[in-house]
Amino acid sequence: QVQLAESGGGLVQAGGSLRLSCVISGGIIARNAMNWYRQAPGKQRDLVATVAGGGTTNYPDSVKGRFTISRDNAKNTVYLQMNSLKPEDTAVYYCNMHTWLYDYWGQGTQVTVSS
After folding, report:
1. Which of 29, 38, 89, 91 gives a 20 to 30 Å CA spacing to 60?
2. Which residues in the chain land under pLDDT 50?
3. 96: Cβ–Cβ under 8 A, 6 or more apart, which residues?
4. What per-residue confidence (pLDDT) applies to 29?
């Protein structure tokens, strides 16, 4: 059974950094698109980073230049490096693996950025 497990969230001051990790068990990520989403209370779950199976990355303007998604296929792990964090980055961050048949989701990890 495919499972995704996020870690690395926590409390950080504005301007600080965090690195989130997502370990996938029961599946191979190498040929799949991997994504990070976030959801703040009362708001829609939004995509914050994606890396396609071929390696292409994309980011929305809200995080571009501050966040970096990367993958280590040998470790079956995806990372989200977050720098220059802002209070508006506060949200639950979810790891997602998109395949042709299913979308798999982790349970989420809380990121809180204090002003």
Report:
1. 29
2. none
3. 4, 34, 35, 36, 37, 103, 104, 105, 106
4. 85
